[in-house]
Amino acid sequence: MPQSVPFDAWLRAELDTVESALSAWVPGTAPAGLGQAMRYGVLDGGKRLRPLLVLAAAQAVGGHREASLRAACAVELIHAYSLVHDDMPCMDNDVLRRGKPTVHVQFGEAQAMLAGDAMQALAFEVLTPDDGVPAALQAKLCSLLARSAGHAGMAGGQAIDLASVGVPLNEQALRDMHHRKTGALLQGSVLMGAACGDLPPAAWSALADYGDAVGLAFQVVDDILDVTQASETLGKTAGKDMDNNKPTYVSILGLPAARAHAEELRNKAQAALARSGIANVERLKVLADKVVERDN
């Protein structure tokens, strides 16, 4: 989409495009009600920040459109599957997500587990069409997504999170946990978009730093909102981390310092874009601002 399109118009158009593509690719016909559970877990909800980061980064570098749209949907499928599993009684045991009952509440625990499994597999199916995307790019996108979601990224971070209930963590340990649990997939979204174009190493490194800062900022703000907003605003259960005695940026730094840290991370993200040498980064700038300024 041309860079001259105003951000709000770009946002609405891309959200519609992502929603339409997800609706087309998530099969309602999967057997025994599985498709219904999958569609419930991924469609009609969420901020779609990760797909927007993919698309904004790809457009900034003049990247392959079909590949970037598939990457945007794939990363959202991974994110949605992780929420389905995280909400289950064996993990965070939550009953509200995106303003509606969680998947295991609506469909039962076994179906929720299978829906998450199927969404994870579908993400890689979406990334590997028979034609339309060069094979080397398919492989690169699969590698970036797998590393972001696996033991070194999101799954590893969730393991640390579960092991840290009631355990005092210092800021460095908390940062490492959230770099994996939340930050890795957000950074991976930026890099998947960037991979759809052709960048010199310095620009790639700058976008990686941008994604890292945005990913951590997202978690810091999440921790702030958990203690400052109502469940109705968040669309999920407020105060859950405190009730479960989980370490957060607010519990470790305090609320004023956590807010200051979010601003520091926003500045780091903007500085990384400035040194990237990429001309068309305005949408990435706005997305960083929206991460810090959001209220849900």
TrEMBL record:
MF term (GO), any: prenyltransferase activity
Keyword DNA damage listed: no
Single biological process term from Gene Ontology: terpenoid biosynthetic process
Pfam families: polyprenyl_synt (PF00348)
Gene3D superfamilies hit by this protein: Farnesyl Diphosphate Synthase
Keyword hit for Zinc: no
Classification via InterPro entries: Isoprenoid_synthase_dom_sf, Polyprenyl_synt, Polyprenyl_synt_CS, Prenyl_diphosphate_synthase
Key words of the record: Isoprene biosynthesis, Magnesium, Metal-binding, Transferase
One Gene Ontology CC term in the entry: cytoplasm
Cofactors demanded by this protein: Mg(2+)
Family affiliation: Belongs to the FPP/GGPP synthase family.
Full protein name: Polyprenyl synthetase
